[in-house]
Structure formats: C-alpha cells, structure tokens
Amino acid sequence: MTKRTWKRIAFTVLGVFVLGVIVLAIHIYIVTRPRVDAGTRVLVRIDMKQDIDSADAGKITAWLYQQKGVDHVLVNPESNIAVFSFAPVQNNATQIVGRFKQELPYKAERYLPSEEEMKNGCPVATTSMSYKAYSFIKQLF
What we know:
With 141 residues, the protein is of the alpha+beta class.
C-alpha cells in the first residue's frame, strides 16, 4: 500500500475513535444527570430522641402512610428510627418531618448524612472507571 492510503486509514480510525469518545461522553453526561420524575423515590430517616414501643411504632407508621406520596414505612422501636420512602414530585421531606414534629408527641430529628458520610457511602463508586469518567466530564461542564 502507498503512504497516502496509510494516512487515509489512520485519519479515518482516529476520526472514528474521537467521535466514539464524544458520543460516550455525551451519553455518560445525560445518563448520570440527576432527574426527578414520577418514578423517583427518596428515602428519609427520622431519629426519635426518646424511647418508643411497638404501640408508638404503629402510630408513627399509620401517620406516615397518611402523608401524600409516602410508599413504604419501616419503624424500628428497638433503635428508635423511622425510615420511609416517598415521591418527591408529590411531597417534600422537610415538610413531612416538620408536620411529624408538630402533630405527633415525639421528639424527633431528620437524619442527614454529613459530607464525609456521603463520600464514604459506596466504596465501589469512587474507584470505578465510570465514576472517574463521570467526574472528569462533570468538571468540563
């Protein structure tokens, strides 16, 4: 083959590679963007600052299920913790917890993880190639 044919092949391969990287970057950006829609669910944890028993757990469970958008509720009287999932399109966690503290006679606080706990949440995510690619693309935009 001639030198001109090799150059044409090299430029074609390089062009396809660059195009593939651009398409991959756009795909990763679109897929990893946070979005809230009807299928999105959020978990919220409420820590009781007092001991509760199984009767209290039943009252808390019933009250949380009455809130708009709440799907599942778990109350553990041994650890004094309530966890529930809800649709953020229909309700707001801060409002639910605020009403909880007003309407029920329990001393409670919403648990919000610290920045350090958020970083340590998933050990695989920070070391994976897709997370590194996501971080790189996030810095570009």
